TrEMBL record:
CDD domains associated with the record: MFS_OFA_like (cd17353)
Organism name: Bradyrhizobium forestalis
Membrane-traversing stretches: 20-40, 60-80, 87-106, 112-132, 144-169, 175-195, 228-251, 305-322, 328-347, 368-388, 394-412
Domain Major facilitator superfamily (MFS) profile, chain residue ranges per copy: 1-416
InterPro entries, per database record: MFS, MFS_dom, MFS_trans_sf, Oxa/Form_antiport, Proton-linked_MCT
GO molecular function, one term: oxalate transmembrane transporter activity
Keywords assigned: Membrane, Transmembrane, Transmembrane helix
PROSITE patterns: MFS
Protein name: Oxalate/formate MFS antiporter
Upper taxonomic lineage: Bacteria, Pseudomonadati, Pseudomonadota, Alphaproteobacteria, Hyphomicrobiales
One GO CC annotation: membrane
Gene3D superfamilies: MFS general substrate transporter like domains (1.20.1250.20)
Pfam families assigned: MFS_1
Gene responsible for this protein: oxlT
PANTHER family: MFS DOMAIN-CONTAINING PROTEIN (PTHR11360:SF304), MONOCARBOXYLATE TRANSPORTER (PTHR11360)
Length: 440
């Protein structure tokens, strides 16, 4: 930390190695909150077996968690802009620990839902702060930085899925909640002391025609008045709804397909289909986020969206037709999550490119609430599956992803380019007019 002439403490200056260290700590923090979303599916059936509340009622806790996690991010981002990332991430670490501790003692749906709210507050504080900080440190590599940070959230559960599943079997789901909740929260709380924002504004490098970046820093109210923001929001909801449904319901789906405990052998490894699928899902999800972020830095945001959304639609179609085959279930879900997670790298990067870096934490936080909106469809998936089967749920998700792929190329791309060029032209005209007036 550095003291300014007036005695105030500012963040560390820009140093190449230091910003990569900041990125690394953000990734670890994200990994510690991953189980709150991606490990949840392991607890659904054990909770139901213990209390007989029903899957739909239990999955409502997941929806409450995601809604709270996402819709409060803009508020938490305001605290980041005002007080810095440290205090917000410390708060997040305390909240995620408290959430799973409460889950371990929850003997009513009310307490389960209260824990979901607390967990959502904590996860949102960590997620929004770490992604926003990455965008500020890496305006020249927004896709890669956002993707690597989001990869912590996507792949963070990969190393703990098997231990959690084993602990649930050997010691009960309550013990798993308690043990991992305390451990995850403690790591985040300690790392918070070392996370800092850049002290100076780092200008983006405009080096590619297929990667337009604004020179203007738009305030949150200006962003909310921009049609391009709401089109991006809609596409985010369309893609996120299928991914959240699959993440939350993958265990119930496997059990309904009667393949959850079927042994599957791939590349010399053998595991039960459900455990294999979740573990491989987390690995490919974690790999896909920085990969697609890097790819979007190279070929552009919207073409990358088209590739990812189109592949997701194809995998969901495969699951709807052949998901009852254990090997197909494992591989199709793995590829699906490998391309699904890129929304958490592409949309923050696209948001930063379109609206600037100065208010990137808040602006991306507003866009991230689309995930909360999408989560409202997760309980609906349970209702549809009960009435029409999982195939109907997958078909709806296929349609949403295919439509989103087309919208990325033919709606978002021209609209965003027009917005950036138009606003910069207005800014230039205004500056020219002011200069002429002062000269006269």
């Amino acid at each position: 930390m550095i003291s300014s002439p007036d005695g105030a403490v500012t963040a560390a200056p820009l140093r190449t190695g230091f910003r990569w260290l900041q990125l690394g700590m953000g990734i670890v923090c994200m990994a510690m909150i991953a189980n709150l979303q991606y490990g949840w599916t392991l607890f659904v059936d054990p909770i139901d077996a213990a209390h007989h509340w029903g899957r739909a009622a239990i999955q409502l806790a997941f929806t409450i968690f995601v809604v709270t996690e996402t819709w409060l991010v803009p508020v938490e981002a305001w605290f980041v802009d005002k007080y810095g990332p440290r205090i917000v991430i410390m708060f997040g670490g305390a909240m995620i620990a408290l959430s799973w501790i409460l889950n371990s003692y929850a003997d009513s749906l009310t307490l389960l839902y209260a824990a979901a709210i607390i967990g959502g507050m904590g996860a949102g504080a960590v997620y929004g702060t770490c992604v926003g900080n990455a965008l500020k440190w890496f305006p020249d590599r927004r896709g890669l930085a956002a993707g690597a940070t989001a990869a912590g959230f996507g792949a963070g559960a990969a190393l703990t899925i098997v231990p959690i599943a084993s602990m649930i079997v050997s010691s009960g789901y309550q013990h798993a909640f308690l043990t991992f909740g305390i451990g995850q929260g403690l790591v985040v709380f300690v790392l918070a002391f070392f996370i800092q924002p850049p002290r100076i504004s780092i200008p983006p490098k405009k080096k590619q025609l297929n990667l337009p970046q604004t020179r203007i820093d738009f305030t949150p109210p200006q962003v909310l008045r921009s049609p391009v923001f709401w089109v991006m929001y809609l596409v985010f909801v369309m893609v996120a709804s299928g991914g959240l449904m699959t993440a939350a319901q993958i265990a119930p789906i496997a059990h309904d397909f009667k393949i959850a405990d079927t042994p599957v052998t791939l590349a010399g490894f053998q595991m039960a289909a459900l455990t294999f699928a979740i573990s491989l899902d987390r690995i490919l999800d974690g790999f896909g986020r920085p990969f697609f972020g890097w790819l979007s830095d190279t070929i552009g945001r919207e073409p990358t969206m088209f590739i990812a959304f189109g592949t997701a639609a194809l995998m969901l179609l495969t699951l709807s037709a052949y998901g009852h085959v254990p090997v197909v279930f494992v591989l199709a879900t793995a590829v699906y999550f490998g391309v699904f997670g890129e929304i958490y790298s592409l949309f923050p990067a696209t948001c930063g490119d379109t609206f600037g870096a100065k208010f990137a934490t808040t602006n991306n936080g507003m866009l991230y609430t689309a995930k909360g909106t999408a989560s409202l469809l997760v309980p609906l998936a349970s209702v549809i599956s009960t009435a029409y089967g999982w195939k109907a749920v997958f078909v709806v998700a296929v349609a949403l992803n295919a439509t989103a792929a087309l919208m990325a190329l033919f709606v978002i791309k021209p609209l965003r380019r027009s917005f950036i060029l138009g606003k910069e032209a207005e800014s230039t005209d205004t500056a020219t007019g002011t200069a002429k007036t002062e000269t006269a």
